From TrEMBL:
Organism listed in the record: Micromonospora polyrhachis
Spans annotated as Disordered: 1-21
Cross-referenced PANTHER family: NITRATE/NITRITE SENSOR PROTEIN NARX-RELATED, OXYGEN SENSOR HISTIDINE KINASE RESPONSE REGULATOR DOST
UniProt-listed InterPro entries: GAF (IPR003018), GAF-like_dom_sf (IPR029016), HATPase_C_sf (IPR036890), HATPase_dom (IPR003594), Sensor_HK_TwoCompSys (IPR050482), Sig_transdc_His_kin_sub3_dim/P (IPR011712)
Name of the molecule in the record: Signal transduction histidine kinase
Residue ranges of domain Histidine kinase/HSP90-like ATPase in the record: 488-578
Membrane-traversing stretches: none
Keywords: Kinase, Transferase, Two-component regulatory system
Domain named GAF: residues: 65-212, 233-378
GO cellular component assignments: membrane
Residues forming coiled coils: none
Amino acid sequence: MTSDATPPAGDPHRESPSLGLTPLSRVRLDELLQEMLDRVGQVMASRERLRALLDAVVGIGTDLDLHSTLRRIVEAACDLAGARYGALGVIGPDRQLTEFITHGIPPEAHAAIGDPPHGRGVLGLLIADPRPVRMPDITQHPQSYGFPPNHPPMHSFLGVPLRIREHVFGNLYLADKQGAREFTEDDEEIVVALAAAAGVAIENARLYAVAHRRERWLAAAAEITGVLLGEVRRTDALTLIARRARQVAEADLALVLLYDEDAEQLTVEVVDSAEGRSPRLLGTVLPAEETAFADSVTHQRHTVIESLAKAAPWPVSVTAGPAVVSPLAAGDQLSGILVVAHADGKALPSDDDVPLLASFAGQAALALERARAQEERELLAVLEDRERIARDLHDVVIQRLFATGLQLQSAVPLGNRPEVVTKRINAAVDDLDSTIRDIRRAIFELRTPMSAALRTEIRDAVDAAAGALGFRPVLELVGPIDSAVPDTVRPDLLAVLREALSNAVRHAQAEKVTVGVQVDGGRLTLTVTDDGIGTDPHQARGGLVNLRERAAGHDGTFEIRRAEPRGTALCWSVPLRD
């Protein structure tokens, strides 16, 4: 007997409301709900991965140092794809891996592995064909070379190229997916997206590095320009050039080789090393044609050589690393070459470094030309000074000695007239004293440094007054004037001389003016004597008062007196403390 009555509440046999659905429909609804939950989970997971991708993109763009940026990219890729190991290989111009940055391998294990890979085997797949590569087991690939000793085992693999515009900068390698047998398509897509953002970050870091290097080169060139504004000594200038070139290029060795066109030889003039090595290279002479520098010498080109050790027959060991050779040329005149070499194992200098070094070498060539011009000018000044002294000795000293000899010779027949003989002997002695003073003056001028030109300035002041006077004043210079008179006294001495000559022009009406400058006994004395109408010493005013004040400023004296037989004598004297 059946009953249609509803089972009481709490009855375990009571069924849930069917909502008018058949059992089959309820199963399908459960599947749809589960699928919806799975989709929601996938959306949430994708959202989290996208947020992680965004955080990674922001993170790798916060540092402008290239090496730190590359390391951040590897770490972010491992986190996003769930990889245990990661690496980033930078591709060089020769299509080999020049730099290999790893993540997940302990430092001690990394050291035990040895040299980094060069881009063969599976790693070379992306170099030959820069497209994403994903495989479940790298060891089963036909091009697998196997792992070196002490290398951790790896199976699942994901490789993605890193592009900077159309240029492949390097490759991103991930291995051993954690929690799964292999990397998924989602892993590949998110790593490809990271690689695209990483290319921008790498380009920014490279541009920043180039700008920073350019700034350092410009600062070094500005320092060389500062040297050009002052007195340039060739060896000092070349040493500074080599040191700054090595420091800015972060190189191991810098050489400056001067070129002898007649002998076709290069001579090592300056050596600057990071550790102070290779001093025995100084003075090394190399036949230009037997070196790798011949192209730079012949055609004045900037060249890059792979090994400095193989570039020339060096007498001692030098670094075997790459080097940049820049000619030191101003116009068509080649002075030498600048060689900047890196340590063995370093990569060849980039295309950005060569023009920067070339610009710096141009500044260095100007420094050499200025140093050479200064040396030639100083040599000409020495030769002109020697010629002037020789002319003075010939025209004054020798002629006076000859006249004195004739005067003494003419006194021999006058032995019966002692007063005449005495007078002639005294005159000869006076002439000999004057000759001795002239010779002493020439000796002092020979000992005087070329930078000292007080005698020249005194002569110029006297020559300037000759036009107004109508005749040239007689000038007598006694003692080491150029070397003994300090710089603090020179301006006052010249001012006093010009004022005294100006007074002689305006007031003396003289036919003869004598200027004497003497350094003796620790004092400098200037005397200006004329044979004019004379002046009252007690009525001195104006410019003459200034002369007295200039003397007092140096604890000196100033005096005006009448000259004999007529005229005025001005005497200005100060002690020499330096």
